[in-house]
């Protein structure tokens, strides 16, 4: 297992370097002078020269990239010109709400999706199975912005159960202000969890070792929860990890609709205000987050599936 994880770690580091190169080139491939664009109508030769020195634009490209890598390692992302604040501190203050909405949304999709998937797999081909697939497909087919607005209209304005904007801390505050954004994320993921887990369970439940467990007199609950789920859940981990890039884009939309002060809303503000340092940092951190989640998913595979550990040794 250790050999396998070391190999995956090396691949992840290479991908991170590629993301760093891409975000570095993002500044340099913008038509025109980034410093002049940033200053706009207030651009002066002195101001442009000052920004060039602060951003290292007066150095050669290889030297600039080396400085950029050093800044990433030390979390020195510079200053935000739009917010007059340190970029690392600004992003750090916004990560919490984004993480809460994302984790809450994934939990909702799992809490609803896993029982539905098990129920559908045990009733394969029946009306319950078909009804579950139709309903989950309907929630997936709805555009996220429309789903967010409908949830806000129904559960917020009509029923008054939840506020439609703002963010509060603490368990009660999170349940009040983050339920609607998390529902938008969770319902969008529901069909992915249900269909993937159902398909895996249908295959596993017809395998020989499951029949052997039933022959030993184990209850159906134990057969499904202890034996079938261990192998079936790997596919769900795989697809959720591969969709984290999609989650980032979805959170940008959700946070804007519900006025959540998270990293997604900050990215929108940074783009609108042409804060290139802030946008560059958020894009890199988003890509790094996806890579880290992918590595953690690989570690989960190795823990859940002994065949991966054996392949790593070979």
Brief descriptors of the model:
314 residues; mainly alpha; MetI-like fold; 2 domains; two-stranded antiparallel sheet; 15 helices; globular
Structural account:
With 314 residues, the chain is mainly alpha-helical. The protein folds into two domains: 2-76, no CATH class; 92-273, Orthogonal Bundle (MetI-like fold). The chain has 15 helices and two strands. The protein has a two-stranded antiparallel sheet with strand order 1-2. Helix 14 packs across helix 15 (306-313). The longest helix has 36 residues, at 87-122. It is globular and about 80 Å long. The termini are close together.
What is the architecture of the largest domain at the second tier of CATH? Orthogonal Bundle
Mean pLDDT: 76
Helical segment count: 15
What is the oligomeric state here?
A: single chain
Question: Short description, anyone?
Answer:
The protein has 314 residues and is mainly alpha-helical.
Could you outline the blueprint of secondary structure elements for this entry?
Blueprint: H1 2-28, H2 34-39, H3 45-55, H4 61-73, E1 79-80, E2 85-86, H5 87-122, H6 127-141, H7 144-158, H8 170-177, H9 179-205, H10 208-215, H11 220-242, H12 244-258, H13 263-272, H14 276-304, H15 306-313
Antiparallel strand pairs: 1-2
């Amino acid at each position: 297992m250790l050999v396998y994880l070391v190999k995956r770690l090396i691949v992840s580091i290479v991908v991170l370097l590629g993301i760093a190169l891409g975000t570095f080139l993002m500044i340099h491939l913008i038509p025109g002078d980034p410093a002049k664009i940033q200053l706009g109508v207030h651009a002066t030769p002195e101001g442009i020269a000052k920004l060039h020195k602060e951003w290292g634009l007066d150095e050669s490209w290889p030297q600039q990239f080396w400085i950029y890598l050093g800044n990433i390692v030390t979390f020195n992302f510079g200053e935000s010109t739009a917010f007059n604040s340190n970029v690392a501190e600004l992003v750090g203050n916004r990560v919490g709400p984004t993480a809460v909405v994302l984790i809450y949304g994934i939990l909702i999709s799992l809490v609803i999706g896993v029982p539905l998937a098990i129920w559908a797999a045990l009733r394969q081909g029946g009306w319950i199975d078909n009804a579950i697939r139709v309903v989950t497909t309907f929630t997936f087919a709805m555009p996220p912005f429309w789903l967010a607005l409908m949830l806000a209209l129904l559960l917020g304005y009509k029923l008054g159960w939840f506020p439609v904007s703002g963010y509060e801390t603490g368990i009660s505050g999170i349940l009040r202000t983050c339920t609607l954004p998390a529902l938008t994320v969770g319902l969008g993921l529901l069909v992915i969890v249900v269909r993937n887990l159902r398909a895996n369970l249908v295959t596993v439940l017809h395998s020989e070792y499951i029949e052997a467990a039933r022959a030993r007199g184990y209850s159906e609950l134990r057969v499904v929860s202890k034996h079938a789920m261990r192998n079936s859940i790997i596919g769900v981990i795989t697809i959720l990890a591969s969709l984290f890039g999609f989650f980032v884009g979805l959170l940008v939309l959700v946070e804007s609709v519900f006025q959540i002060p998270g990293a997604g809303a900050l990215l929108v503000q940074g783009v609108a205000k042409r804060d290139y340092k802030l946008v560059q940092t958020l894009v890199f951190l988003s890509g790094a987050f996806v890579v880290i989640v992918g590595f953690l998913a690989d570690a989960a595979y190795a823990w859940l599936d002994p065949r991966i550990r054996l392949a790593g040794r070979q």
